[in-house]
Write the structure tokens for this entry.
Amino acid sequence: MADATGPDPIGAKPTAPPLAAAAVADYLRQHPDFLAAHPELIQVLVPPDHRHGDNVFDMQQFMVAKLQDQILKLQRQQRALITTSRANLSSQQRIHGAVLTLIGAQSFETLLQTVTTDFAVALDVDVITLCIEARAGITKAPLSGLQLLEEGEVDRLLGVDREVRLGEDIDGDPRVFGGGAGLVRSEALLRLDIAKAPPGILAMGSRKATRFRISQGTELLGFLASALEITIAQWLDL
């Protein structure tokens, strides 16, 4: 039979009785880490203006400490972002300068010499070489800084269909860096796919173990490789 308030709606869930303040306080005493596990509640709680006695915790100090911690984290993230942005801008300027040097080469010999010598300074690396796969029987490179590789070596070094490979905290490969391999602790290997020329690699090595990192982007390096491919192909056409 329905009571005086009328029948209960079919399927209605019973409403939980409101918690008494004493029950809430007792629960918090038994679970002192509750706010640490639910920090989002700090945003909705109203703290006291000041201490009201030795047994009252100053929530304002707790909130201020949390906010200070958040500010420090944001400041660290901001500094890391600024550092990364500056490094990216510096790399972009170096790559663009190197490409302009390629365009300005007055001869094919000057172009190759620029890549194997001047690029080291322009790109802030210690060793830079051009590697090409040589036909059987050819054992001596015609130019200093030019390394000869066996047929198929480019794919073995880079991986099939891979354009750029980065390595950090490594030992330099003498096949790639020749006599300068002992200096190399990180590297960037860029595939060169040039018409009328065998497969090749532009190899950059640094004595800094983290100069090239596996996690860094390769768009700028890919742009440099494309510019070099186009420039060499144009000289070969001439």
Helices lie at 21-30, 34-37, 59-103, 108-122, 153-158, 174-177, 219-237.
